[in-house]
Amino acid sequence: MKVLITGGMGFIGRAVTKKLIESSVNSITIVDPLTEKIHGPDAKPFDFMNPMVNFIKGDISDRAVIEPLLLSADAVIHLAAETGTGQSMYEIELYNKVNITATSLMLDILSNNKHKIKKFLVASSRAIYGEGKYTCNQHGAVYPNARLDKDMSKGDFEVKCPFCATNCNVEATTEDSLIHPSSFYGITKHFQESIVMTMCPNIGIAPVALRYQNVYGPGQSLNNPYTGILSIFSNLLRAGKNIEIFEDGQESRDFVFIEDVADATAASLLNEKANNQILNIGSGVSTSVIDVANTLKMLYGSSSKLSVNGKYRIGDIRHNFADISRAKEAIGFTPRYDFKNGIKCFTDWVNTQEVKSDDSYKRSLEEMKQKNLYK
């Protein structure tokens, strides 16, 4: 099997490539533009060498780059995307170009040319759910709208029932939950997933959409200030800088370790039971941001101070964690790493990296503040 991985030099792409080298796959081609924001100014094509891996530096929105790669592949793992909810709220054209237009181009090529591709796996996101699934004491299962600025400005960060406006309790979000993203990033990932799942069966390709939760672990970018609180907090703590935690610190996420994500992605490619499926890939457990910050501070032995500032970003969700029972049934997915073990692996790796002490995170918040998206 010849596999094309778009965005394969990214965090997930590198882990998946290593996993596939150990499998029945006999050829892997990676296409990636090596953007400085993610990879830094001195990015190298790959951090390990293997004769079955071919790297192409290029932009998938360029037909001349992506067409010959698609037409020589047997399967596609489509990971290339702009990520980060905050930046997406004002970089509309960029997110549309990379996440939607480039994916449309790939499907246009496959729809109008003879190809050999049998499976097309797209990296979707938990962001498409928005706030996800909740329970109201009066109305049962509900899918709340995005939180209102007028409530959060008063320090009320809880999610409200869309019918009676009382506080709701978060539940594990299933794949059949309502899709209602609260950020432009979420919108683009929903559109990307939808066109793949809709168009591929019409051209003889089995689609698979993996809705990744918050992926973390050794190898993730420490350069990009727009995504990943683990990287942001790690940089601040190691540099001895204080951390200001948004809202009341009780907002939570489903953190899933990179090795578990690589396992699930490889299994989805190689297992026919994944064909035509949409699968949540997470840990199935929620962890609060304040717990994350305290855990990182302890593991780094940092003297930095933590404070909850009550500020917030428009487009952020309050909670979300995945119901992963469908992935377990389809591909046998059971996470091997809980947060305690995974975060220790992550911090051990971070401690081998150069301390990042620039002000990129501060600048990113200033950008959002200027756009009236950080308050």
Summarize the structure.
This protein has helices spanning 11-21, 36-39, 63-71, 85-88, 92-111, 149-152, 184-199, 229-238, 258-270, 289-300, 325-331, 339-350, 360-370; strands at residues 2-6, 27-32, 53-57, 75-78, 119-125, 134-136, 140-142, 169-170, 206-212, 214-216, 243-245, 252-253, 255-257, 278-281, 287-288, 306-308. By secondary structure, the chain is an alpha/beta fold.
What does this structure look like?
It is built from 13 helices and 16 strands. The chain is α/β, with parallel strands linked by helices and 375 residues long. The chain has a domain at 2-133 and 172-215 and 257-284 and 314-335: NAD(P)-binding Rossmann-like Domain (Rossmann fold, 3-Layer(aba) Sandwich), CATH 3.40.50.720. The protein has a 7-stranded parallel sheet with strand order 3-2-1-4-5-9-14, with helices on both faces. A 3-stranded antiparallel sheet has the order 7-6-8, with no helix packed on it. A two-stranded parallel sheet has the order 10-13. Helix 1 (11-21) packs across helix 9 (258-270), helix 3 crosses helix 5 (92-111) and helix 8 runs parallel beside helix 10 (289-300). It is globular.
